[in-house]
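I have been asked to look over a protein record a colleague put together. What it holds is a sequence and that sequence's fold in token form. Please read both lines and tell me whether the tokens look consistent with the sequence. I do not need a full report, just your reasoning and any doubts. This is what I was given:
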Amino acid sequence: MTGTVTAVARHTFVTLAPEQVYDSWVDPAKVRAWGDHNLKERDPSSTVTRIEIDPKVGGRFLFADVRDGEETETWGYYRALERPNRLVFTWFTSPEEEEEDNSTVTLELSAQGAGCLATMSHEMSAEWADYIEPTANAWKGMLRSIEETADER
């Protein structure tokens, strides 16, 4: 990609090992649990409606939810699945973004004691430079939700 910017989010998981965090991104039940938790923190009336995951290189995922009475979809394709340390996927919210194919997320996990450090890097078109901080905060919220719902799954 040329003309890109990167939003970076980090979260230290005290008791979740890299395998557990990694699996939280590719297991539909786990994604639904933390995704719903994350949405409800921002808007209690929001809810996850569909989670579809085909966890293989080239496989597609789809996350759908209802916000303010309207369904929104986010989808992408897996570029690398290296359990337990690295997951790379595209991230789209519109057909135009998918056509441009300039939004890639990398999750890197490194063990730290009984837990791990998660680093999410979202590389996107420079036109979204004003959204670096909100994007990083959104990824941080998702990582926190993984930790906060770990005991519920």
